[in-house]
Amino acid sequence: MTKQIKKCLFPAAGYGTRFLPATKAIPKEMLPVLTKPLLQYGIEEAIEAGMSTMAIVTGRGKRSIEDHFDISYELEHQIKDTPKEHYLTEIRSVINKCTFSYTRQVEMKGLGHAILTGKTLIGDEPFAVILADDLCDNDSKAVLTQMTEIYEKHPDCCIVAIEEIPKEHTNKYGVIAGEEIESNLFKVNNMVEKPDPKDAPSNLAIIGRYILTPEIFDVIEQTPPGKGGEIQITDALLTLAKQGKVLAYKFDGKRFDCGSVDGFVEATNYFYEKQNK
Hints:
The protein is α/β, with parallel strands linked by helices and 277 residues long. The protein has helices at residues 38-48, 63-68, 73-79, 89-97, 111-117, 119-122, 143-153, 215-221, 233-241, 261-275, and strands spanning 7-11, 32-33, 36-37, 53-58, 99-104, 127-130, 134-137, 158-164, 174-182, 185-193, 204-212, 246-250, 254-257. Helix content is 31%, strand content 26%.
């Protein structure tokens, strides 16, 4: 019987340098698209996919994340029985549905290292990973929900979400190559972290949604630093891909790169228009 995925890991220790000076004191994961922080969008997506334990890897200066996903008694008291009370309805719902746990990534050594840091919160079970920078939207079924349905059919595999990108942008992403085994589902045989366009095996880029089996932790521990001197999750997954244990799913939905100012503005405009339809 397939083990149901109950935990979602959120690496949230990065500095957010592309948004300085805004991120000097505010975590980039707490930057709001309209009235809701990026991290809350990701957690709501995980809840929709059936997950109830949110494991967050933080770093220095990230205390506002913990405060946001906690009850603010003074604020609640101040707005109780006023027309403003409804503004807290969504976040109250999130807090009530989830358990939150936190650990710190002391050194920034790459996404692979951030995921390994979360091992103490995950334990020996399959789990999802959401990068809050990648804000995804789908009117019918969230991206992570789509991926959990695939995992139920392929419980021995890790799954990465992919999308087609312009070939000249491959140096910003992990890029896969593989054989399409079902519509939009690929068995991965190669993965390269941020290749030059001329060296990229395809234009299928990994975005910030993963489902990982617990053996990934042992693999990361054995993975040497790669691109940029960091421990890359792409390199660790390549080890499993060579064993036929990685699938890539070309998801249905829209994705915004909110790690860039352009993508952040695009997401803000999109959700504003959607809200006001």
